[in-house]
Amino acid sequence: MIGRIAGRLDYRASDHVLIDVRGVGYLVYVSERTMMALPGPNEAVALYTDLVVREDLLQLYGFPTLLEKEWHRLLVSVQGIGAKASLAILGTLGPEGVSRAIALGDWNAVKAAPGVGPKIAQRVVNELKDKAPGVMALAATMNRTAGDTLPDIDTDVIETPAPPRRGTPSPAPSGGAVAQADALSALSNLGYAPGEAAGAVAQAASDAPEAEAPDLIRAALRLLAPKG
User: Which residues lie within the region annotated Domain I (predicted)?
Assistant: First the structure.
């Protein structure tokens, strides 16, 4: 399995690029959004890839982030969604937009992708809604790791530990604090206000103190869902 390619961009076509890796050219299909973000010819480029293997076909599909690759993997698991339809959805919404649409049940946003009808869009939302929190937690973890900080959490609704005494090392964030921070980050990316997101995460964490981030996200989304 070819999971990542890094080399020199040789040329672009309408829906794919050729990447030269030490003299070997790899043809990689990408979304329109990804194509627009790629550098010019002869410049360095790196893409995470998914290899589709059939009896008469080998095709590589490329993604700028692991998050986008993970959404592609889930999208193509839905009946009626092939690799090209997945690229159309990701190209229209982006990975964060896909997370938002599926988590909030917004199948009209998915339908906006070229070639995706209402029945397929509804199927995508229905089949992936329980998996969206896991991908959202992955995104929050990746963002936190890249920034090496935890998102700010409203201290009025989530209690923070007292600072350590002088001369003692600062403890690493507990698993619960990390899960809550990742859940809060995911909800903020969905557009929820910091106060309501923090309140929902605090309630979810209070109900299940040992819950991991995906479970906290699911519980918080239920709490934030419109009533009636």
Answer: 1-64
